[in-house]
Amino acid sequence: MTPLRVAVWQCASLPGDVAGNLARLEAACERAAAEGADVLVTPEMFVTGYDIGAERTRALAEPADGPIASAVAEITRRTGVAVAYGYPELLPDGAVANAAQLIDGGRAVGAHRKAHLFGGLDTERFARATERPAAFEFRGRRIGMLICYDVEFPEAVRSLALDGAEAVLVPTANMVPYEIVSTVLVRARAYENGVALAYANYCGTESFEGGSEQVYAGLSTVCGADGSVLALGAAEGEELLIADLTGAPQPYLRDRRGDLFV
Known about the structure:
Order of helices and strands: EHEHHEEEHEEHEHEEEEEEH
Shape: globular
Number of helices: 7
Radius of gyration: 17 Å
Helix content: 25-40%
Strand content: 25-35%
Strand order of the largest sheet: 5-4-3-2-1-14
């Protein structure tokens, strides 16, 4: 089987501009298609922007099968590139989740809701996920998804690896001064679990009227299952990273003592 080819899109946020972000996404998918990519990964909450305030987050939240999903589905049908994108999901009980969804060929094939909420930015807006992440089938492979802070917890990636995931896609909104996540933790998670990791971050700054300003760290990265760095973005500037997810995993999952450690 040929390796999965992933496009990781490091870009600036356009807070609140759903239509503009969807137009940018379509253009990025066209570029990824020209490079033969199977899937494109956007940053966290890409469609709406991440730090946009509680009121705007709720106003822009949609169900998983809402108009945003329909627009992304059409992009995947037209370009042939699957899209893992972040958005605020309106839940049946009226709460809002920080969510990510993978759409391929016009239909949703996988989803994740953020389990580890980052400070007040998340806890004041989002419901905490109540289920552990689960792997799912994508183009003949088993993969998983996490969101930003999730990947910094070893057990999150380990759980997906034990569920058979070969790769983990991670939309993120990682800020300065947490560059160590890109340069150390993502690579460590890949190596210790024998899974490839695609980590898509924002670059530049993001602000909304009356709110705070975030300075994003860039450094989007793709790591192979052997911990090798297959692609690494700059600290600043938009980039479309293309990499084939390769690398032979280490024997940690085979040799782990599940009888001693949960």
